[in-house]
Amino acid sequence: QVQLVESGGGLVQAGGSLRLSCAASGRTSSTGVMGWFRQAPGKEREFVAAIRWSSSITYYANSGKGRFTISRDNAKNTMYLQMNSLKPEDTAVYYCAADSRGIYAISRYSNAGLYDYWGQGTQVTVSS
User: Fold this and answer.
1) pLDDT recorded at residue 107
2) Which of 15, 21, 58, 81 has a 20 to 30 A CA-CA distance from 52?
3) How many Å apart are CA 100 and CA 120, to the nearest integer?
4) 72 DSSP 8-state letter
């Protein structure tokens, strides 16, 4: 089992920045790929970014390319999402997720169904 806890959400003005963290505990040695998803009110959960834990290979949704950076710190078992140039349409609950196997190509991890574990989410609100 892997437990995921997100933090770092909050209220920020458009154009501002936030850094989200996702702390993993439990059987973290089996983590293959971790990802960030978000869900805005009335909308489906959507992929934001993913990272392969062993190699740091990353993959981004078009919505975040050039603005968001996903990274991880092995020593801290923590994944990050640095979000810059935030827009009101980035407002959502952000979730981190983990797949213990990581056997697929990183681009396939835009599919939420590939993840075994999910955090509870952290709210990000961007005001205009």
Assistant:
1) 95
2) 15
3) 18
4) E
